Amino acid sequence: MNDPHGKARQDWAEGGPERLYVVTGSGYRPAEQIPLDLVTLIVTRHGPEPGTPPESAAILHMCANPLSVAEISAHLSLPASTVSLLVTDLMATGRVEARAPMRAAPRPDAALLEAVIHGLSRI
Q1: Which of 11, 34, 44, 52 could bridge across to 57 with cysteines, CB 3.0–4.6 Å?
Q2: Does a structural domain hold residue 46?
Q3: Which burial class, exposed, middle or buried, applies to 69 when counting CB atoms under 10 A from its CB (0-12, 13-18, 19+)?
Q4: What CATH number does the domain containing 42 carry?
Q5: Is the pTM of this model over 0.70?
């Protein structure tokens, strides 16, 4: 027996475009939204309230400790673009904040290191 809705159900379960449209509340956002990159860290400021959509509530729960947009995307099995929309909505309501990832300290200049070694050897 052939299920006429089988393909639609499979697309929904696999994160088809219809599901992503519903998850993001249509996907439309004003142009002034804050751009997030994959390594931007997201941390929860306030937990979910009753009626918070499940994906947004999941973000709020998992970001008690900072997670990157890429990590959130992987945990939720959603595209990073969808997660970015959800996170910017949560940022607009003050529920989460974005933090720049920690950058590695620049390497010291080799000439400076040689001068320090030379100075120490003279002591």
Answers
A1: 52
A2: yes
A3: buried
A4: 1.10.10
A5: no
* Token pair 């959509």 in the structure block, residue: 53
**Residue 40, domain extent:** 12-26+34-121
> Domain count of the chain?
1
Query: Measuring CA to CA, how many Å separate 12 from each of 4, 55, 61, 63, 113?
Result: 14, 15, 24, 26, 59
Please tell me the distance from the alpha carbon of residue 37 to that of residue 113, in angstroms, as a whole number.
35
CA 121 to chain CA centroid, Å, is 49
Q: Tokens 């997030």 appear where? A: 36
pLDDT digits (tens, 9 = 90+) for 80-104: 888 988 998 899 889 999 988 777 6
Taking alpha carbons only, the member of 79, 86, 97 closest to residue 59 is 86
Domain membership flag for residue 7: no
Token pair belonging to 100:
């720049």
Using the structure block, give the residue that is written with the tokens 């998992």.
62
**Could you give the residue ranges of the DSSP H alpha helices within 1-123?**
6-13, 17-23, 54-62, 69-76, 80-92, 110-121
